[in-house]
Write a structure and sequence with these properties.
The protein has two domains: about 5-35 and about 185-235 and about 275-375, no CATH class; about 55-170. Helices cover about 55% and strands about 5% of the residues. The chain has a five-stranded mixed beta sheet. The chain is mainly α. Residues about 5-60 have low confidence and may be disordered.
């Protein structure tokens, strides 16, 4: 007998208000269909600036005044671009910008390249030019040049990893992940979360992720755990034609529409009927409502299609409830990602709902896990 998901809809909706998603990820506390997003910067939080000789000299006068004016103009345009990009990424039903937004973003990065004067501005302009291309590997030369000048630029490294994934350059993926570790770009808590996320995915299953942090931490842990029998497919990276071509080579059928949105995910699942999928709980609920009658909670994912009995679902989630780290990695998680702990709640509620053991000991065990989720570390 399949899991009666009606039980979960009301419970998950009740806890939804607790979640606050990280950049490019919407946290879905189980299947709740009123997702709300905000977009704090994570991987861009530390900027490594290389100053030009003119800036370092501390020169004064007309030339220096002009330089400051030009830099102010550049920074203003950067803010405009990042604000517009954040708005696009906060859309809970699409990873792609509208045609009008795409045009505005392109005009912005072209302007940035034109007004960039200092070395640090040129680096930033090249990085944002690649960023606006939605992981178009044809723009990689500008990104590579920026990283040649500043090898530790966090956002540049973030995009380098994305470019390596869309082109299937496994060696560069490994090299860039090592760089991430040395610079602590992926928080320790996300490493723990990624480990629990990968452990949630059965063999011979495709894990669908949403944004950067869930994708990168999952891939990092997939490689660490040598889980070669699963694929990680990112909705964000599916904007790239090179990434789609890579999936075609792996045996997937890929929808032809350009926009990656709710409809696109539905089409991707339907045209690959032989595949088993696992949806990361970071995926906004707008995407998942179309599958709601055939999902099974399994740790930090929803399995689709649901071919499991209630007994098996209970058994697996009990195992996960006892073995998961709950992001307890010895360091307090950044407050911008601590809300990811709420994604452990569906697993616990599944156990609470399906278990026939109503003993005091069992209730106490379940409650202790809920308390663990509420803790900051």
């Amino acid at each position: 007998m399949k899991l009666n998901l009606f039980i979960f809809f009301g419970v998950f909706a009740a806890v939804h208000s607790l979640a606050q998603p990280p950049q490019t990820n919407s946290i879905s506390n189980g299947i709740n269909f009123n997702s709300v997003e905000k977009s704090p910067e994570l991987l861009d939080s530390t900027q490594f600036i290389i100053r030009s000789k003119d800036e370092e000299s501390g020169a004064v006068g007309a030339d220096n005044t002009k330089l400051k004016q030009e830099k102010s103009s550049f920074e203003k345009e950067v803010d405009t671009y990042k604000s517009s990009k954040a708005k696009v990424k906060s859309n809970s039903s699409s990873r792609s910008a509208s045609e009008a937004d795409e045009m505005q973003l392109q005009q912005s990065v072209v302007k940035l390249k034109g007004v960039a004067q200092t070395l640090s501005e040129q680096i930033e302009a090249n990085i944002l030019y690649y960023d606006q291309g939605n992981y178009n590997a044809e723009r990689a030369p500008q990104l590579i040049e920026a990283l040649r000048l500043n090898p530790n630029h966090p956002h540049g490294l973030n995009l380098l990893l994305a470019n390596s994934l869309v082109t299937g350059d496994t060696l560069m993926v490994l090299k860039t992940l090592d760089k991430f570790k040395s610079l602590h770009i992926i928080p320790d808590a996300m490493t723990c979360y990624g480990n629990d996320l990968i452990e949630s995915v059965p063999d011979h299953t495709t894990l669908i992720t949403h944004g950067t942090l869930d994708t990168y931490s999952a891939i990092q842990e997939q490689l660490t755990l040598r889980r070669n029998t699963i694929d990680v497919v990112s909705l964000d990276l599916l904007q790239s034609n090179q990434y789609r071509a890579l999936l075609l080579k792996k045996g997937y059928t890929v929808p032809v529409q350009s926009n990656v949105d709710v409809t696109y995910l539905g089409d991707l699942i339907r045209v690959n009927p032989s595949k088993q999928f696992a949806f990361s709980m970071t995926i906004p609920s707008d995407y998942l409502v179309q599958f709601q009658e055939d999902l099974a909670p399994n740790g930090l994912v929803f399995l689709y299609p649901n071919r499991l009995s209630n007994e098996f679902i209970l058994q697996k989630n009990e195992q996960f409830m006892d073995s998961f780290s709950y992001m307890d990695c010895g360091a307090e998680p950044d407050e911008s990602i601590v809300a990811l702990k709420q994604n452990y709640l569906p697993m616990i509620l599944t156990v609470e709902t399906l278990t026939t053991d109503k003993s005091k000991e069992k209730r106490s065990k379940i409650e202790s896990r809920k308390i663990k989720i509420r803790q900051k570390n």
